[in-house]
């Protein structure tokens, strides 16, 4: 799969790392990458128990400190128009299935694909990063709702597994590890899966995918041993 040269995507494993506030660890890079004074925030994956308005306040506060305004897509009467007129788009984390179901119900998946293909900057965190892959089949979330399809935006030639965790050698837990789950996925699916650890992210621009942040990423391919990928340009 050849990447669209117009893609400008930042896909982060998480919005918050231990010991810091919302987007603190990535805000400088995000501001440099997005190159805008206005962001459209998509809160449809909202964490349980809070409203769209409450969720939108988190990125509004973070980006507001950099003199960037944030509006929630729910504040507009027509979500398609909001996407088409956006200067940059940030899709927040939460439950991936809820996010995908809502986007399909609002009939904006194709609109999102088109504006990003045309060069609009897209930022995703967790569920919003899951959305950039081929499907959402490697999310860690429970399927609390049932979207009409697991097909995602397909910007990337692989799936992402955000919040990737390595096995803890000192744990007494006998259940499946994250790596085991991804290998199970590959019994029925062929696309590669990138395990993206906390504090790391991908930047996609000019047809290239770059791994950034504090950690390596773990790449899984069907019927092959997993490999560690260092920071820098990734070859797919």
Automatic annotation (TrEMBL):
Its main location: cytoplasm. InterPro entries: Class_I_gatase-like, Peptidase_S51. Keywords: Cytoplasm, Dipeptidase, Hydrolase, Protease, Serine protease. It is found in: Cytoplasm. Signal peptide: none annotated. It catalyses: Dipeptidase E catalyzes the hydrolysis of dipeptides Asp-|-Xaa. It does not act on peptides with N-terminal Glu, Asn or Gln, nor does it cleave isoaspartyl peptides. GO terms for cellular component: cytoplasm. GO terms for biological process: proteolysis. Its EC number is 3.4.13.21. This is dipeptidase E. It comes from Moheibacter lacus.
């Amino acid at each position: 799969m050849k990447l669209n040269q117009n893609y400008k995507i930042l896909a982060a494993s998480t919005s918050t790392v231990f010991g810091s506030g919302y987007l603190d660890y990535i805000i400088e890079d995000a501001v440099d990458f997005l190159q805008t004074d206005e962001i459209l925030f998509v809160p449809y994956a909202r964490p349980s128990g809070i409203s769209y308005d409450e969720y939108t306040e988190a990125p509004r506060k973070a980006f507001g400190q950099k003199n960037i305004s944030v509006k929630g897509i729910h504040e507009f009467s027509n979500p398609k128009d909001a996407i088409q007129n956006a200067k940059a788009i940030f899709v927040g984390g939460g439950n991936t299935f809820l996010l995908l179901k809502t986007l399909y119900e609002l009939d904006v998946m194709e609109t999102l694909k088109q504006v990003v293909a045309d060069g609009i900057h897209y930022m995703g965190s967790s569920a919003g990063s899951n959305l950039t892959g081929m499907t959402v089949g490697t999310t860690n979330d429970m399927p609390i709702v049932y979207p009409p399809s697991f097909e995602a935006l397909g910007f990337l030639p692989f799936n992402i597994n955000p919040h990737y965790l390595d096995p803890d050698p000192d744990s007494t837990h006998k259940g499946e590890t994250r790596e085991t789950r991804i290998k199970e996925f590959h019994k029925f699916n062929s696309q590669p899966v990138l395990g993206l650890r906390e504090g790391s992210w991908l930047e996609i621009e000019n047809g290239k995918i770059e791994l950034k942040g504090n950690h390596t990423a773990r790449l899984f391919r069907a019927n092959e041993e997993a490999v560690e990928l260092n920071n820098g340009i990734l070859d797919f």
